[in-house]
Amino acid sequence: MGKKSLLAEAQRFKRSIGTKNESSLHKTLKFQYTGEGGKSEVQVGEFVADGISKKGEYIEVQTGSFAPLRKKVKEFASHGSVRIIHPIPISKKIEVFDTKGKLLYRRKSPVRGSIWDLFDALLHAPEIALVKNITIEAALVDTTEKRVKDGKGTWRKKGISKRDKSLAAFHESVIFAKKADFIKHFVPFKTKEEFTVTSHAEKAEIKRHVSQKALYVLTKMKAIKRVGKKGQAWVYTR
Predict the structure, then answer these.
(1) Cα separation of 114 and 112, whole Å?
(2) In terms of DSSP bridges, do strands 82-97 and 58-61 run parallel, antiparallel, or are they unpaired?
């Protein structure tokens, strides 16, 4: 094998190395959405897709920020339709084991997720929602997080390390294929009706910081626009 071939092989390995550390949640969703007759870990140009369905749709499961996907999904979209699956844990159960695998205790996390958590993923890559051929699907799920009391976790975690996250239940999915889908779910105002962060938060029944994040992303993806100021507050409209 020549130097160029060795380099190409090393690059392919580097791009796909994440599969070695993917969680059970990621694996389950990858195979669920790839479906029967589909393929997983498919080379597309210089990148590797999580999968491609029998119908030819590229599947990419992303549990965190969409920022690392910028170049990757644009490459996929140049070849065909792409579906980004973003799991949002509505509830989470935590199981803590000792180093020998014995369950020490189990508890339910007080943190509950919602569809609005999608903006955490889009915050640093809002332009992805504008790319032709890309559909974003928010999967509302329950998860189980496995942790091990191995003395290696941070002091905040009291020596407990996170090891895996798995799917406990699948509730529903919400599909965002166009700007109108985002408006339907996140902008509870009529066309040309003006609103601010405060009025948006009140009407949507969410916290102010969630509204700030949502309106920033929605503005960047051109689903809404700023039309002026009312005092110190930005005024938005559909």
Answers:
(1) 7
(2) parallel
| pLDDT higher than 60, residue 43 | yes
Q: What is the mean pLDDT of residues 113-127?
A: 97
- Picking from 25, 213, 23, the residue whose alpha carbon sits closest to that of residue 120 is 213
pLDDT at 159: 83
How far apart, in whole angstroms, are the C-alpha atoms of residue 180 and residue 231? 29
Tell me if 15 sits within 8 A of 46, measured CB to CB: yes
| Closest to 42 (Cα-Cα) out of 52, 33, 34, 55 | 52
What is the Cα–Cα distance from 111 to 127, expressed in whole angstroms?
A: 29
**How far is Cα 58 from Cα 38, in angstroms, rounded to an integer?**
10
Q: Please choose, from the candidates 129, 166, 116, 130, the residue with its C-alpha nearest in 3D space to the C-alpha of residue 146.
A: 166
Boundaries of every domain in the chain: 3-12+21-177, 188-238
Q: Does the pLDDT value for residue 4 go beyond 80?
A: no
